[in-house]
Amino acid sequence: MALDISKVAEKVSTLRRAASDRDSRMNDVHDVRSGDVESVMPGAMPDAWPKPIVANMIDTSARDMAEVMGTMPSINCASGVITTSKAKKFSGKRTKIANHYAQSSQLNAGKQVSFCDYYNTFGLAVYVVEPDFTDKTPRIRVESPMGIYPEMDLYGRVRSYTKVWREEAIHLVAKFPHLLRALQSNETGGQASMGWAQREIEVIKYCDGDQITMYLPNNGNMLIDSMPNPLGKVYVSIAKRPGFDQEVRGAFDDAIWVQLAKARMALLGLEATEKSVRAPLAVPRDVQKMTFGDDAIIRTDNPDKVRRVALDVPQYAFQEGALLDNEARTAMRSPEVRSGNIDASIITGRGVQALMGGFNTVITTGQNVIAQALARALELAMEMDEKLWPGQQKTISGVVQGTPFEENYIPGKDINGVYTVDVTYGFA
């Protein structure tokens, strides 16, 4: 049964409170990857250096892992032992349909890499299956997990899906013109001087098997739009990173603090160097007149006593950078060999392979989880295609295992309630 707007708002508020710790971790990792250290650790950066001066290992490792993990897998719809030519043709056509969904959604054009990046960084990644009524085909969209609040049953099926985001009023009105008068008249608060067009409005979209509802929570739960869910199901597939508890944790939740320590130590080293260069000058008592600048002359009977005041920097301060670097790589499970730095003592391929062992385990585990999520998304796309356009004849094209194809199909006839898709990585 569909919920009214007050019940929806109450449910969404409960979900957001329950996920407050997860949201905090996601925001911290996002800010560190973006270089916005001040929001995570206020006062850590001096005014002269508002950004870190060390390489962002979090961002570099995340991109590296996502690019390795984000290769497109093999998509196949042949299930069981095929004994007849009719069954072989049926499974072959469904394989082409499934590959067409992935290719027309541009998953192989970088979106799969973004999906893997979200999975590693935030511990959660989302495929949203939506109908494209212009081309009359389902599309698989990769959505950022920041601000999402899914409800799942014991078997991992999504029961409700909530997305929260902020959008400037002028862009929101362009999509929903009926909000113009309400947003123009609501110029109270700290952002009133900015005008209504530049104000950021929080928007919430709630979807379950009964309804799809959008509203503005900070404007008295103003309803933007609401409609019954014609498909009776939430067409969302979620990949969750395995963990030891029920919390959603990314691969870099602990490493960000090591990265911040590295940035802080680098700034302290820079400050120590600057103070050493600008240290005061110590001269003997017989100096009566001092000149400064290039080629300056100081007249004294004790020239050996003219010197800069030494700044004693502890020796362990220089070793701390290497220790933090090792700690960061241990936390991220990304070996130094990934950056091209190989110890000279590693002279055999077996030694390099041993260093890469942990990294390969991360990639293999991630690809197994992502393969299941992609298979689920393709199954939902087939189900949506059959439900919305059962008798529509379509022409599709694409590439399957390096072979181009062009095929005609009718969803009601060529899918016929069989949605099973097998997604595999490697030489399966």
Set out the fold topology.
Elements: H1 5-18, H2 20-33, H3 37-40, H4 57-69, E1 74-76, H5 85-104, H6 111-122, E2 124-132, E3 137-143, E4 148-152, E5 158-168, H7 169-175, H8 180-185, E6 200-208, E7 211-216, E8 222-228, E9 236-240, H9 255-277, E10 281-282, E11 307-308, H10 316-332, H11 349-388, E12 394-400, E13 403-409, H12 411-414, E14 422-424
Antiparallel strand pairs: 1-14, 2-3, 2-9, 4-5, 5-6, 6-7, 7-8, 10-11, 12-13
Helix pairs in contact: 4-6, 5-11, 9-10
Summary?
It is built from twelve helices and 14 strands. The chain is α+β, with helices and mostly antiparallel strands and 428 residues long. It has a five-stranded antiparallel sheet with strand order 4-5-6-7-8.
**Spatial strand sequence of the major β-sheet:** 4-5-6-7-8
Head-to-tail CA distance between termini: 44 Å
Helical content stands at 40-55%
What is the overall pLDDT average? 84
Q: Strand content of the residues, in percent? A: 15-25%
SSE string, helices as H and strands as E: HHHHEHHEEEEHHEEEEHEEHHEEHE
**Looking at the structure, what is the overall shape?**
elongated
| Rg calculated over all Cα atoms | 29 Å
Task: Tell me about the largest β-sheet.
Answer: 5 strands, antiparallel
Number of helices: 12
Task: Extract low-pLDDT stretches.
Answer: 189-193
